[in-house]
Amino acid sequence: MTPIETQQIHARASDAAAGRGGVKIEARGVERVFESKNREVRALGPFDLDIADGEFVCLVGPSGCGKSTFLRMVAGLARPSAGTVRVSVRDTSRPPTAMVFQDYSIYPWRTVLANVRFGLEVQGVSKKEAERRALDSISRLGLAEFTKSYPHELSGGMRQRVSIARALAMEPEILLMDEPFAALDAQMRTILQEELLALWEADRRTVLFVTHSLEEAILLADRVVVMTARPGKLLDDKVIPFDRPRSVAIRQSPEFAALHEELWEHLRREVTP
After folding, report:
1. Which of 162, 181, 230, 254 makes an SS bond possible with 189, Cβ 3.0 to 4.6 Å?
2. Which residue ranges does the record assign to the ABC transporter domain (predicted)?
């Protein structure tokens, strides 16, 4: 491979297909190797994956298999050691991706409004437009009465809503979510799953979502991509058969249980020492 082929490429879509369900994220032969003085750790790959424009895809797999590493490559925060990750972008005037992390990653010294507005300020969006977009995003996440509150005054679920609102305010073409609900209790996790489903139904932006929960993946995703143990490779790529709009009530169906068991059987050998 030439040097350019081993780097991440953020490319503008060459035709209108990317806006009509064409390939939005394309990974080919992606590998990630971490080196130290004493050893080399092969964390990921080779890994191939296509994600369509407007698709909601969940990545599941054992700890350390490279799920979050791949997410960071799509975000442009890390480069593959080999292979390419190509993101097709329709509008170069706005960021192609925005990321939501498990640990909220919001600033304790800034109010809710200031946190949500922060990314827009960094992008150079005018103060008036940044305020409008931040308030709109805050309202969509049910935080309108907390614009002047600080993170320490909010519950964990509300802090994660702030993190999601900040990402959505950027109006990215791709939303990247790295176990965003893992630190929440079961009740709050269910509530935010419902809210995320409703938000996704409203705009159908591309979402790549990392989770350790097969149940969460089946509930949220159009497709669940199962990865092997390190170095992570593609083990299974399952289309979820449940209609949209989708409710958490589908968890009670025999079909949901059967699909959960099928995916777990694929994954069991990978998580068992």
Report:
1. 181
2. 25-254
Non-local (6+) Cβ contacts of 230 within 8 A are 41, 42, 43, 44, 62, 64, 65, 66
d(CA 229, CA 269): 9
How far apart are the C-alpha atoms of 266 and 254, rounded to whole Å? Answer: 19
| Placement of tokens 């068992």 in the chain | 272
DSSP labels, 140-154: HTT-GGGTT--GGGS
Give the helix/strand (H/E) hosting 106: none
Model confidence pLDDT, tens digit, residues 20-66? 468 999 999 999 999 877 888 899 999 999 999 999 999 999 999 99
Boundaries of every domain in the chain: 3-96+172-271
| pLDDT tens figures, 168-198 | 999 999 999 999 999 889 999 999 999 999 9
Task: Collapse the DSSP code of 108 into the 3-class scheme (helix H, G, I; strand E, B; otherwise coil) and give the result.
Answer: coil
Task: Find the angle CA(100)-CA(209)-CA(240) to the nearest 5 degrees.
Answer: 155
Whole-angstrom distance, CA of residue 174 vs CA of residue 89: 9
Query: Which amino acid is located at 38 in the chain?
Result: N
88-123 in b/e burial notation, b at 16+ Cβ within 10 A? bbeeeeebbbbbbbbebbbeeeebbbbbbbbbbeee
C-alpha span between 223 and 231 (Å, rounded): 21
The angle that helices 156-169 and 186-203 make with each other, rounded to 10 degrees, is: 20
Q: Which CATH class, in words, describes the domain spanning 3-96+172-271?
A: alpha beta
Q: How many CA atoms lie within 13 A of 25 on its CB side?
A: 27
